[in-house]
Amino acid sequence: MNNNLSLPNTKNGTPFNDQIINILLSAGNILNKSKNFELKPIFKAKKDIVTKIDIEIENFISDQIIKNFNHHNIIGEENGGELLNDDYNWVIDPIDGTKNFFYGHPHYCIVLGLTYGDKILAGFTYDTNRNEIFHAVKDQGFYLNNKRFKVSNKNKFNNSFLSVEIPGSGMGSQKTIEFIKKIHSDVIGLRISGSAALSLSYLASGRSDLFICYKLNIWDQIAGIIQVTEAGGKIVDRNGNKAGLYSDGIIAGNASIVDDFLIKSKAYKWT
């Protein structure tokens, strides 16, 4: 496969970033006009809910991709799909932080990522509550709206500002809770936001020093992986290997703090 991949052209000639941002802004209007207190949750699993707005936004973005691009293999959290090895793939999370959205907690976002095969080319995260669009294209840097950002320069885990997400169920959730108990006294602060995608965007923006999560899905982490990378950061799995679409856990920050954490975390038996 060609390592110097270009972004797909839009059908109408609009620049790639402009087209994606227009799609996200329109999807955000759907989200902002909805009234979460009138919604009824649909339980996909015991602790995993979806609303009709999730489905509506995913369908809208899918339709816009088909309308505006020639390449439109789509993988969505709600509608599914499979990654193609030799084509462009669009990955959608219509609302990352659905439980926050449902309960009126204003911390959730829309995520749209692009790959060619398993190579991430672009990642966009739209926080509709704060009018913030975090975005990165391969080899073009990381931006919050129109301003370029870099990851924090904190180089040691001790006294860092830590961001954590806890998996909804399974061994990872219990391990993370036990891990937090062990390391809480070592950090200056710890935040659990309920939106992994936003937490990764915040990390890329320097709003936290280190992000960890035991396990994420492809749509949760696709945008964050390229955003952290383009912001000059390091992002690895729980074993210290370079993170990818299906990585087993995520650890992100600048290279020094990630390496320091990997050494310290062995004693805590988190991985």
Describe the structure.
The two termini are about 35 Å apart. Helices cover about 35% and strands about 25% of the residues. The protein has about 270 residues and is α+β, with helices and mostly antiparallel strands. It folds into 2 domains: about 15-150, 2-Layer Sandwich (Fructose-1,6-Bisphosphatase, Chain A, domain 1), CATH 3.30.540; about 160-270, D-Maltodextrin-Binding Protein, domain 2 (3-Layer(aba) Sandwich). The protein has helices spanning about 15-35, 50-70, 100, 170-185, 195-205, 220-230, 255-270; strands at about 40-45, 50, 75, 90-95, 110-115, 120-125, 130-135, 140-145, 145-150, 160-165, 190, 210-215, 235, 250-255. The strands form 3 sheets. The protein has a 7-stranded mixed beta sheet with strand order 3-4-5-6-7-8-9, sandwiched between helices. Strands 11-10-12-14-13 form a 5-stranded mixed beta sheet, sandwiched between helices.
* Total of domains: 2
Helix content: 25-40%
Rg over C-alpha atoms, rounded to the nearest angstrom: 18 Å
Along the chain, the helix and strand elements come as HEEHEEHEEEEEEHEHEHEEH
Query: Averaged pLDDT, please?
Result: 91
* Poorly predicted tracts of residues: none
Number of strands: 14
CATH architecture assignment of the largest domain: 2-Layer Sandwich
Quick one: CATH class of the largest domain? Alpha Beta
Biggest sheet record: 7 strands, mixed
- Structure annotation, total helices: 7
Q: Per DSSP, what share of the residues sits in E-state strands of 2 or more residues?
A: 15-25%
Structural class, by secondary structure, is alpha+beta
End-to-end gap:
33 Å
Shape: globular
CATH topology of the largest domain: Fructose-1,6-Bisphosphatase, Chain A, domain 1
Kindly report the name of the CATH homologous superfamily of the largest domain: Fructose-1,6-Bisphosphatase, subunit A, domain 1
